[in-house]
Amino acid sequence: MQIYLDYSATTPIRPEAIAIMETVMKEQWGNPSSLHEWGNRAALILEKARIQVASLINAVPESIIFTSGGTEADNLAIMGVARSYSVPQHIIISRVEHSAIAEPVKMLENWGWEVTRLPVNHLGKVNPDDLKKALRHNTVLISIIHGQSEVGTIQPIAELGEIARRHGTLFHTDAVQTVGRLPIDVQNLPVDLLSLSSHKLYGPMGSGALYIRPDLQVNSQILPLLCGGGQEKGLRSGTQATAIIAGLGIAAELAAKELELERLRLIELRDRLFTKLSQIPQLIPTGDLVDRLPHHLSFCLQYDHDHLHGEKITGKTLVRQLNLAGIGISAGAACNSGKITPSAILLAMGYSEKAALGGIRLTLGKQTTVADIDWTAIVIAQILQRLTQNHTTFIFN
């Protein structure tokens, strides 16, 4: 029996996306920039996908710029705005951003930009008052993640975006974890830029999009990172991967149709698993338990000893043990060159280094069943009991 519970890392491609990708690769393989019939057929596929993606977030189609994924969309938002200024300005992000935001901002900082990283509380949430205090006359961009991938906390994007709008500052949100999982309406949500990714909503890897408020394009408030043939309104040159984008399009269309029922189903499964896992004394819930991604659970485990049979006990220990049992989850701590480092997200939330080494994440999806939930809870309890049978004391942070 195999159970996949890592849907925040990636989702399986839905059959409808595979089918349309195969059709496009066989029959509409032309270059969408070409003026002949083969190019026209490919261009129609591309624009249909643009409409499908736009409809998912209630955007106008011309506001959607296709990218190679969420990382490129995030980079285009951050660096594209920065490139429109001849001298460094001020940018605000949170301390719990994905590396696709944190790393380009770090690069800007090295180039002389001023950066404010907003703190979060123990639940991983930004305080809107902190954003108000951080604003400066030269603050040109604010980027706050919508749904935090590691601990599941949903940020108050509407309130934060309104603060940015009143100040006249551009607001971007990394919505990779929320598009297709939560209802999003950019006509009402005060965001200027929004990133999404295909493989988080049952589309193929290698495709994503950046929503850009249409007037930003007209006023050149965002400049391209890639220069070339001028595709995607000159904001993302390079021949579009038509088949992959078509897969994203159908995945987006079906996500919109299924969103509400699937959201409620996942919440029910999530809460069922949480109830079972919260009874295991070795597991401490992390993140906001109310304002939370519908498919997401996260915990940390911490021991009063450092090693078990010569191995340092971390969240990755539990990941490996569960993998042997045929269950796939993920851990928050990073592994670089063989050295395990604490989760930067849990550290930002105030957890100790020891606790931040013990973070785990379980994320549910379309193929998750009640039987999967119940069996996973049993296996985790058994593994933790076995790992700790010779150790009696736990530290809770």
In short:
With 397 residues, the protein is an alpha/beta fold. It contains 12 helices and 17 strands. It folds into 2 domains: 3-7 and 259-388, Aspartate Aminotransferase, domain 1 (Alpha-Beta Complex), CATH 3.90.1150.10; 15-254, Aspartate Aminotransferase, domain 2.
Could you please describe the fold and organization of this structure?
The structure is a single chain. 39% of the residues lie in helices and 16% in strands. α1 packs antiparallel against α8 and α3 (70-82) packs parallel to α4 (99-110). It folds into 2 domains: 3-7 and 259-388, Alpha-Beta Complex (Aspartate Aminotransferase, domain 1); 15-254, Type I PLP-dependent aspartate aminotransferase-like (Major domain) (Aspartate Aminotransferase, domain 2). The strands form 5 sheets. The protein has a 7-stranded mixed β-sheet, with helices on both faces. The chain has a 4-stranded antiparallel β-sheet with strand order 9-10-17-14, with helices on one face. Mean pLDDT is 92; it is low at 391-397. With 397 residues, it is of the alpha/beta class.
Topology:
Layout: E1 3-4, H1 15-27, H2 37-56, E2 64-67, H3 70-82, E3 90-94, H4 99-110, E4 114-118, H5 128-134, E5 139-143, H6 157-167, E6 170-174, E7 193-197, E8 208-212, H7 214-218, H8 242-277, E9 284-285, E10 296-300, E11 307-308, E12 311-312, H9 315-324, E13 327-328, E14 330-331, E15 334-336, E16 339-341, H10 344-348, H11 353-356, E17 359-363, H12 370-388
Parallel strand pairs: 1-13, 3-4, 3-5, 5-6, 6-7
Antiparallel strand pairs: 2-8, 7-8, 9-10, 10-17, 11-12, 14-17, 15-16
